[in-house]
Fold this sequence. Notes:
The protein is of the alpha/beta class. The protein is 44% helix and 16% strand.
Amino acid sequence: MRIYDTMARARVALDLPEDRVIRVFVCGPTVQDNFHIGHARTYIFFDAFVKYLRTSGYRVFYLQNITDIDDKIIDRANAEGVSYDVISRRYTEEFHNIMSGLRVDSVNFFAHATDHIAEILNQISILIKKGIAYETDDGVYFDISKFPDYGKLWGQNPDTLLPSSDSSATKKNPRDFAIWKKMKPGEPYWESPWGKGRPGWHIEDTAITDRYFGPVYDIHGGGMDLIFPHHDAEIAIERSISGRDRLVNYWIHTGMINVNDEKMSKSLKNFITIREVLRSYRAEDLRFALLNANFSSSLNYSESLLQEARRNVSQISILYNKVILKLGDRAKYRKDYDLIASLDSIIQDNMDFRSLFRDVIKLVGSWNADLEHLGKDELNQAYSVLKWVDSFAGIIRRGSSDATVSGTVELLLNIRKELRAIKQYQLADSIRTRLLEMGVYIEDNGSDTAWWVNSEEGGDDL
Length: 462
């Protein structure tokens, strides 16, 4: 398998050990506001990536952090007149609800920054003892002059970098970044050898990964906007402590989102939340749309992108459910089909979902055109291929399992059957038409009628 590695600035062979658990860390959210489609792109991609590794036989421990103390959280709390933890708890719950709605469920453990203060204090102490960090009147700062490789991940010389966002007249260098911020009146705090305060953003992640993975681990992921300063700062902190030549073996970053060819931002009023999208589209539609591109390149998000994704997801889902209907209890999932091996070679080339989806859609069209003539083995091949793709891509809609919905649909279909029996075809057809408008797909097979949810309109309720 090959993957684009940010540090190498090239596609490299992803050489993962098979005799132990693969350690993957992806930067989680700062829980202070609603989550947008940029978050969705990152977390959907890494969900699919980790699931693909597991489907391929690797054992993976997927760790994600939750930044539950930060300047933005404090600012939001002050604006609402509540404590910081009211904000962090609210948006942590919202994050988990949103991820569940997106079928992002591969993370093994969420580590909260405020649960790791002891580890953070320990790392700060080590950096001070080594002369790499220094205390001032308003905090403790990392001295970037002591780490010549600072900026290497981003590919910039430290002397040309912009000042850090931690503005302070007491810093030795405007580019030095805070690893401990001393308390200002009214702010939340923890006790430390340097006075009451709270951790800086960058050291929260290194303290967490060092505790669970040690000084060097396999894969670190996140959005491209985190490369600098966040990930370069993580490298500087952990390598300065460990003395190792690297923090991770592979750096994987997802590209940014543009909306109608403009950068997404609140100031341009084109900031789109995940909840907004899911009012009109299904999770599978959004997953398809965001995966259907080179993961490390910018993605232009538009209504037409989602509409195309919905059409493709519907086509794939309808065929999948038709195949299940035909196979019944004869459905047997097998991964040893040559067709799966061929598709697997596509996804192994830099997680190329665009090419994978293109070929799957061609197959679906072919199977659909010849469905009535497919034998059991051919049906099982179609079933296995689509189930394999869905095991990591998560793009196939399932029929409804809600008892009330099922009962209502079955009642209407029984009425329709009785109407057809007495040759009231116009009324029977009107029931079929209305059900289709509500997203219920119907297929008549002799005297039997099968149905499943195939919502062309409407989204997921979270």
